[in-house]
């Protein structure tokens, strides 16, 4: 049953508590957050509600696969649900397709695109953004190192928040932040010390 799956995951999974501060800052500063995931919308929604203590506000959007009834059964019955994939890609959700329309907007209306991820399903989206945050020690870092793709590592959302604040306030440009990341990659032979958000220009 889907409801039992959700309850089990909510009990066992721990989310980064620093994301709450990032979420609150983003809401106060008109910065939209888009959760791009190969997971399921009802599970992600439940996990976020547990972490935040309430349903996410309108500045947070979830774009992911979904759950649907199987053969007309009650979705909360035994074998009563199945995954409804967004597309036919390997993970059922090609995240780059969600980012590309924004990346291709004219410069005067195009938002600044920041992306945080950690896994294989994030590879397709990595090249579409202005600044990529990759979780330390995960598959996305390995891929970026191998391909020479600029990225900034993060341990938790506190460092993502600090960098995003600096960009939003004008203390540092996103191009400068990305350049610093690129220099770390090239200067260390590819060795450097998972949500997508759009900063409005």
TrEMBL record:
Which InterPro entries does the entry mention?
A: HAD-like_hydrolase_phosphatase, HAD-like_sf, HAD_sf
The record's PANTHER family line, in alphabetical order, gives: PHOSPHORIC MONOESTER HYDROLASE, UPF0655 PROTEIN YCR015C
Among the Pfam families in the record, one is HAD
The upper taxonomy is: Eukaryota, Metazoa, Ecdysozoa, Arthropoda, Crustacea
Query: Gene3D superfamilies from the entry?
Result: 3.90.1470.20, HAD superfamily/HAD-like
Ranges where the record places region Disordered: 179-201
Q: Biased composition, Polar residues: where in the chain?
A: 187-201
Q: Which organism is it from?
A: Hirondellea gigas
Protein name per the record? Phosphatase
